[in-house]
Amino acid sequence: MPVLQSKDVPLFLRLVSATTQIASSAGSIARKVVKSGELDIVDKGGGNDPQTIADRAIQAYVVQMLRQSFPKLTVIGEEGESVSAENELFEHLIPPSPSNSVLDKLIFPQILKLKIPDKLRGIKEEDVVIWLDPLDGTTEFTKGGLGHVTTLIGIAHGGIPVAGVIHEPFSYHSGDGRTIYGIPGVGYGGCQMVLPQTGKRIITTTQSHSNPRIEAAIGILKPYRVIRAGGAGHKALYLVEGVANAYVFASKGLKKWDTCAPEALLQAVGGKMTDLSGQAYSYNKNDEYGNDGGLLATAPGEDHEWYVKQFLGGAPLNL
Ligand SMILES: Nc1ncnc2c1ncn2[C@@H]1O[C@H](COP(=O)(O)O)[C@@H](O)[C@H]1OP(=O)(O)O
Ligand SMILES: [Mg+2]
Ligand SMILES: [Mg+2]
Ligand SMILES: [Mg+2]
Protein backbone atom coordinates (compact mmCIF):
# COMPACT_ATOMS: atom_id res chain seq x y z
CA MET A 1 0.00 0.00 0.00
CA PRO A 2 2.65 2.54 -1.12
CA VAL A 3 0.70 5.70 -0.39
CA LEU A 4 -0.16 4.39 3.07
CA GLN A 5 3.48 3.86 3.87
CA SER A 6 4.47 7.36 2.88
CA LYS A 7 6.01 9.19 5.81
CA ASP A 8 4.69 12.48 4.37
CA VAL A 9 1.19 11.55 5.54
CA PRO A 10 0.60 11.48 9.33
CA LEU A 11 0.16 8.03 10.84
CA PHE A 12 -3.37 8.97 11.97
CA LEU A 13 -4.57 9.63 8.42
CA ARG A 14 -2.84 6.54 7.03
CA LEU A 15 -4.55 4.49 9.73
CA VAL A 16 -8.02 5.92 9.07
CA SER A 17 -7.57 5.42 5.34
CA ALA A 18 -6.37 1.82 5.74
CA THR A 19 -9.24 1.12 8.13
CA THR A 20 -11.84 2.20 5.55
CA GLN A 21 -10.23 -0.12 2.99
CA ILE A 22 -10.06 -3.06 5.39
CA ALA A 23 -13.64 -2.63 6.69
CA SER A 24 -14.87 -2.44 3.14
CA SER A 25 -13.18 -5.65 1.98
CA ALA A 26 -14.27 -7.42 5.20
CA GLY A 27 -17.85 -6.93 3.99
CA SER A 28 -17.31 -9.61 1.35
CA ILE A 29 -16.86 -12.16 4.15
CA ALA A 30 -20.33 -11.48 5.57
CA ARG A 31 -21.85 -11.68 2.08
CA LYS A 32 -20.07 -14.99 1.33
CA VAL A 33 -21.31 -16.49 4.59
CA VAL A 34 -24.92 -15.56 3.78
CA LYS A 35 -24.55 -16.98 0.27
CA SER A 36 -23.19 -20.26 1.64
CA GLY A 37 -26.11 -20.51 4.08
CA GLU A 38 -23.75 -21.99 6.71
CA LEU A 39 -23.58 -19.56 9.62
CA ASP A 40 -22.13 -22.04 12.16
CA ILE A 41 -23.79 -20.30 15.12
CA VAL A 42 -22.24 -20.65 18.59
CA ASP A 43 -24.03 -19.43 21.73
CA LYS A 44 -21.55 -17.36 23.74
CA GLY A 45 -23.93 -17.58 26.74
CA GLY A 46 -24.98 -14.92 29.24
CA GLY A 47 -28.27 -14.16 27.52
CA ASN A 48 -28.57 -13.40 23.85
CA ASP A 49 -25.04 -13.22 22.40
CA PRO A 50 -24.64 -15.47 19.37
CA GLN A 51 -21.44 -15.72 17.34
CA THR A 52 -21.27 -16.93 13.73
CA ILE A 53 -18.46 -17.90 11.40
CA ALA A 54 -18.74 -14.37 9.95
CA ASP A 55 -17.97 -12.79 13.36
CA ARG A 56 -14.89 -15.02 13.70
CA ALA A 57 -13.59 -14.67 10.14
CA ILE A 58 -14.06 -10.88 9.96
CA GLN A 59 -12.31 -10.40 13.29
CA ALA A 60 -9.38 -12.58 12.12
CA TYR A 61 -9.14 -10.76 8.80
CA VAL A 62 -9.31 -7.23 10.21
CA VAL A 63 -6.77 -7.97 12.94
CA GLN A 64 -4.37 -9.54 10.44
CA MET A 65 -4.67 -6.65 7.97
CA LEU A 66 -4.25 -3.95 10.64
CA ARG A 67 -1.25 -5.71 12.20
CA GLN A 68 0.41 -6.11 8.79
CA SER A 69 0.61 -2.35 8.27
CA PHE A 70 0.55 -1.14 11.91
CA PRO A 71 2.21 -3.79 14.10
CA LYS A 72 2.34 -1.67 17.26
CA LEU A 73 -1.41 -1.02 17.57
CA THR A 74 -3.43 -2.46 20.45
CA VAL A 75 -6.47 -4.20 18.97
CA ILE A 76 -9.32 -5.26 21.26
CA GLY A 77 -11.89 -7.30 19.37
CA GLU A 78 -15.18 -8.74 20.55
CA GLU A 79 -14.26 -12.30 19.60
CA GLY A 80 -11.03 -12.44 21.61
CA GLU A 81 -7.51 -13.43 20.71
CA SER A 82 -8.03 -17.02 19.65
CA VAL A 83 -9.31 -16.47 16.09
CA SER A 84 -6.68 -16.50 13.34
CA ALA A 85 -6.97 -15.83 9.62
CA GLU A 86 -5.03 -19.06 8.95
CA ASN A 87 -7.83 -21.13 10.46
CA GLU A 88 -8.72 -23.75 7.84
CA LEU A 89 -12.40 -23.50 8.79
CA PHE A 90 -12.68 -20.08 7.25
CA GLU A 91 -9.66 -19.75 4.96
CA HIS A 92 -12.11 -19.82 2.03
CA LEU A 93 -13.84 -16.68 3.32
CA ILE A 94 -10.74 -14.47 3.67
CA PRO A 95 -10.33 -12.04 0.73
CA PRO A 96 -7.15 -12.54 -1.30
CA SER A 97 -4.35 -10.05 -0.65
CA PRO A 98 -5.09 -7.16 -3.00
CA SER A 99 -2.44 -6.04 -5.44
CA ASN A 100 -0.85 -2.62 -4.98
CA SER A 101 -2.81 -1.15 -7.88
CA VAL A 102 -6.09 -2.17 -6.25
CA LEU A 103 -4.96 -0.75 -2.91
CA ASP A 104 -4.10 2.52 -4.52
CA LYS A 105 -7.76 2.85 -5.57
CA LEU A 106 -8.79 4.35 -2.28
CA ILE A 107 -12.48 4.61 -1.40
CA PHE A 108 -11.81 7.99 0.24
CA PRO A 109 -8.66 9.53 -1.32
CA GLN A 110 -9.56 12.77 0.48
CA ILE A 111 -8.73 11.28 3.89
CA LEU A 112 -4.98 11.43 3.24
CA LYS A 113 -5.25 15.15 2.48
CA LEU A 114 -7.32 16.19 5.50
CA LYS A 115 -6.12 19.09 7.62
CA ILE A 116 -5.90 17.80 11.18
CA PRO A 117 -5.01 19.43 14.50
CA ASP A 118 -1.53 18.91 15.95
CA LYS A 119 -2.79 16.50 18.61
CA LEU A 120 -3.97 14.07 15.89
CA ARG A 121 -0.90 14.72 13.74
CA GLY A 122 1.36 13.68 16.63
CA ILE A 123 -0.38 10.35 17.38
CA LYS A 124 2.00 7.40 17.73
CA GLU A 125 1.04 3.88 16.69
CA GLU A 126 1.81 2.36 20.11
CA ASP A 127 -0.65 4.74 21.80
CA VAL A 128 -3.62 3.80 19.62
CA VAL A 129 -6.31 1.37 20.78
CA ILE A 130 -8.59 -0.17 18.16
CA TRP A 131 -12.00 -1.31 19.42
CA LEU A 132 -13.24 -3.86 16.88
CA ASP A 133 -16.74 -5.28 16.56
CA PRO A 134 -16.40 -7.56 13.52
CA LEU A 135 -20.15 -8.02 13.22
CA ASP A 136 -22.59 -5.86 15.15
CA GLY A 137 -26.20 -6.96 15.10
CA THR A 138 -25.38 -10.67 15.10
CA THR A 139 -28.77 -11.68 16.53
CA GLU A 140 -30.47 -9.98 13.57
CA PHE A 141 -27.85 -11.50 11.20
CA THR A 142 -28.81 -15.02 12.34
CA LYS A 143 -32.47 -14.22 11.64
CA GLY A 144 -31.97 -12.69 8.19
CA GLY A 145 -32.18 -9.05 9.32
CA LEU A 146 -29.16 -8.18 7.21
CA GLY A 147 -29.78 -4.43 7.03
CA HIS A 148 -29.08 -4.14 10.79
CA VAL A 149 -25.55 -5.55 10.48
CA THR A 150 -22.35 -3.49 10.50
CA THR A 151 -18.62 -3.91 11.07
CA LEU A 152 -17.37 -1.34 13.59
CA ILE A 153 -13.75 -0.23 13.86
CA GLY A 154 -13.18 2.49 16.46
CA ILE A 155 -9.85 4.25 16.80
CA ALA A 156 -9.13 5.59 20.31
CA HIS A 157 -6.24 7.65 21.65
CA GLY A 158 -5.86 8.99 25.18
CA GLY A 159 -9.13 7.27 26.13
CA ILE A 160 -11.28 9.12 23.60
CA PRO A 161 -12.59 8.05 20.18
CA VAL A 162 -10.58 9.94 17.54
CA ALA A 163 -12.02 8.20 14.46
CA GLY A 164 -14.62 5.60 13.61
CA VAL A 165 -15.28 3.45 10.56
CA ILE A 166 -18.62 1.74 10.02
CA HIS A 167 -19.23 -0.68 7.16
CA GLU A 168 -22.66 -1.97 6.19
CA PRO A 169 -22.06 -5.18 4.19
CA PHE A 170 -25.71 -5.39 3.10
CA SER A 171 -26.45 -1.75 2.45
CA TYR A 172 -29.37 -0.94 0.19
CA HIS A 173 -27.13 1.80 -1.22
CA SER A 174 -24.76 -0.63 -2.97
CA GLY A 175 -24.23 -4.37 -3.53
CA ASP A 176 -20.64 -3.94 -2.35
CA GLY A 177 -21.76 -2.48 0.95
CA ARG A 178 -21.36 1.04 2.27
CA THR A 179 -18.39 2.39 4.22
CA ILE A 180 -18.61 5.50 6.40
CA TYR A 181 -15.96 7.27 8.44
CA GLY A 182 -16.04 10.06 10.99
CA ILE A 183 -13.29 12.06 12.66
CA PRO A 184 -14.57 14.30 15.49
CA GLY A 185 -13.69 17.93 14.88
CA VAL A 186 -12.38 17.17 11.38
CA GLY A 187 -15.01 15.63 9.12
CA TYR A 188 -16.85 12.57 7.88
CA GLY A 189 -17.59 10.79 4.62
CA GLY A 190 -19.65 8.04 3.03
CA CYS A 191 -23.01 9.35 4.25
CA GLN A 192 -24.91 12.58 4.55
CA MET A 193 -25.92 14.07 7.85
CA VAL A 194 -29.63 14.84 8.00
CA LEU A 195 -31.18 16.63 10.99
CA PRO A 196 -34.13 14.73 12.49
CA GLN A 197 -37.50 16.45 12.73
CA THR A 198 -38.10 18.22 16.00
CA GLY A 199 -41.33 18.32 18.00
CA LYS A 200 -42.12 14.63 17.52
CA ARG A 201 -39.47 12.77 19.53
CA ILE A 202 -38.48 9.53 17.83
CA ILE A 203 -36.47 7.15 20.02
CA THR A 204 -34.63 4.12 18.70
CA THR A 205 -33.73 1.18 20.92
CA THR A 206 -32.94 -2.52 20.97
CA GLN A 207 -35.09 -5.05 19.13
CA SER A 208 -33.63 -8.23 20.62
CA HIS A 209 -32.28 -7.32 24.10
CA SER A 210 -35.17 -5.46 25.73
CA ASN A 211 -36.36 -5.69 29.35
CA PRO A 212 -38.83 -3.77 31.54
CA ARG A 213 -36.18 -1.28 32.69
CA ILE A 214 -35.33 -0.35 29.10
CA GLU A 215 -39.02 0.16 28.37
CA ALA A 216 -39.43 2.29 31.52
CA ALA A 217 -36.53 4.53 30.52
CA ILE A 218 -38.04 5.08 27.09
CA GLY A 219 -41.40 5.88 28.70
CA ILE A 220 -39.77 8.67 30.74
CA LEU A 221 -38.95 10.44 27.45
CA LYS A 222 -42.60 10.40 26.29
CA PRO A 223 -41.74 9.42 22.74
CA TYR A 224 -43.93 10.10 19.75
CA ARG A 225 -42.62 6.89 18.21
CA VAL A 226 -40.20 4.09 19.16
CA ILE A 227 -38.13 2.37 16.47
CA ARG A 228 -36.83 -1.03 17.53
CA ALA A 229 -33.84 -2.17 15.54
CA GLY A 230 -30.72 -4.31 15.90
CA GLY A 231 -27.11 -3.23 16.24
CA ALA A 232 -25.46 -0.26 17.93
CA GLY A 233 -23.86 0.81 14.63
CA HIS A 234 -27.15 0.64 12.76
CA LYS A 235 -28.98 2.71 15.36
CA ALA A 236 -26.18 5.30 15.49
CA LEU A 237 -26.68 5.69 11.72
CA TYR A 238 -30.37 6.42 12.38
CA LEU A 239 -29.20 9.45 14.40
CA VAL A 240 -26.70 10.53 11.75
CA GLU A 241 -29.22 10.26 8.92
CA GLY A 242 -32.21 11.93 10.58
CA VAL A 243 -34.34 8.83 11.24
CA ALA A 244 -34.44 9.21 15.04
CA ASN A 245 -33.74 11.91 17.63
CA ALA A 246 -32.16 9.69 20.29
CA TYR A 247 -30.92 6.14 20.90
CA VAL A 248 -31.49 4.80 24.41
CA PHE A 249 -30.32 1.52 26.00
CA ALA A 250 -30.99 1.50 29.76
CA SER A 251 -29.16 -1.72 30.54
CA LYS A 252 -25.76 -3.33 30.79
CA GLY A 253 -24.80 -5.37 27.71
CA LEU A 254 -23.15 -2.88 25.38
CA LYS A 255 -19.35 -3.02 25.23
CA LYS A 256 -16.66 -0.57 24.15
CA TRP A 257 -16.42 -2.19 20.71
CA ASP A 258 -20.14 -1.50 20.18
CA THR A 259 -19.78 2.22 20.89
CA CYS A 260 -16.28 3.46 19.93
CA ALA A 261 -16.78 3.78 16.16
CA PRO A 262 -20.43 4.95 16.41
CA GLU A 263 -19.46 7.56 19.02
CA ALA A 264 -16.70 8.93 16.78
CA LEU A 265 -19.00 9.18 13.77
CA LEU A 266 -21.82 10.72 15.78
CA GLN A 267 -19.50 13.33 17.28
CA ALA A 268 -18.10 14.09 13.83
CA VAL A 269 -21.57 15.06 12.57
CA GLY A 270 -22.46 17.07 15.71
CA GLY A 271 -24.23 14.46 17.85
CA LYS A 272 -23.30 13.07 21.25
CA MET A 273 -23.01 9.69 23.00
CA THR A 274 -22.60 9.07 26.74
CA ASP A 275 -23.93 6.73 29.39
CA LEU A 276 -27.41 7.47 30.76
CA SER A 277 -26.05 9.88 33.38
CA GLY A 278 -24.23 11.94 30.76
CA GLN A 279 -20.82 10.47 31.64
CA ALA A 280 -18.37 9.96 28.74
CA TYR A 281 -17.11 6.44 28.03
CA SER A 282 -13.37 5.86 28.37
CA TYR A 283 -11.56 3.81 25.72
CA ASN A 284 -8.12 3.13 27.22
CA LYS A 285 -6.74 -0.37 26.74
CA ASN A 286 -7.03 -1.21 30.45
CA ASP A 287 -10.60 0.07 30.82
CA GLU A 288 -13.48 -2.28 31.55
CA TYR A 289 -15.04 -3.55 28.33
CA GLY A 290 -18.63 -3.09 29.53
CA ASN A 291 -20.61 0.15 29.19
CA ASP A 292 -22.41 -0.62 32.42
CA GLY A 293 -24.05 2.80 32.72
CA GLY A 294 -26.19 2.17 29.65
CA LEU A 295 -26.27 4.34 26.54
CA LEU A 296 -27.77 7.67 25.58
CA ALA A 297 -26.97 9.00 22.12
CA THR A 298 -28.52 12.06 20.57
CA ALA A 299 -28.69 13.30 17.00
CA PRO A 300 -27.12 16.59 15.86
CA GLY A 301 -29.22 19.52 17.04
CA GLU A 302 -30.74 17.63 20.01
CA ASP A 303 -30.27 18.86 23.57
CA HIS A 304 -28.36 15.92 25.10
CA GLU A 305 -28.58 17.45 28.60
CA TRP A 306 -32.37 17.53 28.40
CA TYR A 307 -32.41 13.74 28.03
CA VAL A 308 -29.93 13.29 30.91
CA LYS A 309 -32.14 15.46 33.12
CA GLN A 310 -35.25 13.40 32.36
CA PHE A 311 -33.48 10.27 33.58
CA LEU A 312 -32.09 11.97 36.69
CA GLY A 313 -35.56 13.28 37.53
CA GLY A 314 -37.27 9.90 36.95
CA ALA A 315 -37.24 6.75 39.07
CA PRO A 316 -33.67 5.51 39.73
CA LEU A 317 -32.75 3.28 36.82
CA ASN A 318 -30.40 0.94 38.74
CA LEU A 319 -28.93 -0.83 35.72
N1 LIG B 1 -26.90 -8.52 26.56
C1 LIG B 1 -26.03 -8.41 25.57
N2 LIG B 1 -25.05 -9.33 25.46
C2 LIG B 1 -24.15 -9.23 24.46
N3 LIG B 1 -24.14 -8.26 23.51
C3 LIG B 1 -25.10 -7.35 23.60
C4 LIG B 1 -26.08 -7.38 24.62
N4 LIG B 1 -26.90 -6.36 24.42
C5 LIG B 1 -26.43 -5.72 23.34
N5 LIG B 1 -25.34 -6.31 22.83
C6 LIG B 1 -24.52 -5.90 21.69
O1 LIG B 1 -24.90 -4.58 21.40
C7 LIG B 1 -25.51 -4.51 20.11
C8 LIG B 1 -26.67 -3.56 20.17
O2 LIG B 1 -27.70 -4.14 20.93
P1 LIG B 1 -29.13 -4.32 20.26
O3 LIG B 1 -28.94 -4.91 18.91
O4 LIG B 1 -29.86 -5.22 21.22
O5 LIG B 1 -29.66 -2.94 20.24
C9 LIG B 1 -25.91 -5.94 19.81
O6 LIG B 1 -26.04 -6.10 18.44
C10 LIG B 1 -24.80 -6.70 20.45
O7 LIG B 1 -23.62 -6.62 19.63
P2 LIG B 1 -23.11 -7.88 18.74
O8 LIG B 1 -24.19 -8.23 17.80
O9 LIG B 1 -21.89 -7.33 18.13
O10 LIG B 1 -22.81 -8.96 19.75
MG1 LIG C 1 -21.79 -10.41 20.14
MG1 LIG D 1 -21.85 -5.32 18.78
MG1 LIG E 1 -20.28 -8.25 17.31
Automatic annotation (TrEMBL):
It catalyses: 1D-myo-inositol 1,3,4-trisphosphate + H2O = 1D-myo-inositol 3,4-bisphosphate + phosphate; 1D-myo-inositol 1,4-bisphosphate + H2O = 1D-myo-inositol 4-phosphate + phosphate. InterPro entries: CysQ/Inositol_MonoPase, Inositol_monoP_metal-BS, Inositol_monophosphatase-like, Inositol_monophosphatase_CS. The keyword Metal-binding applies. Keywords: Lithium, Magnesium, Metal-binding. It comes from the Eukaryota. It is an enzyme of class 3 (hydrolase). The keyword Magnesium applies. Its EC number is 3.1.3.57, 3.1.3.7. Belongs to the inositol monophosphatase superfamily. This is 3'(2'),5'-bisphosphate nucleotidase 1. The lineage of its organism: Eukaryota, Metazoa, Ecdysozoa, Arthropoda, Hexapoda.
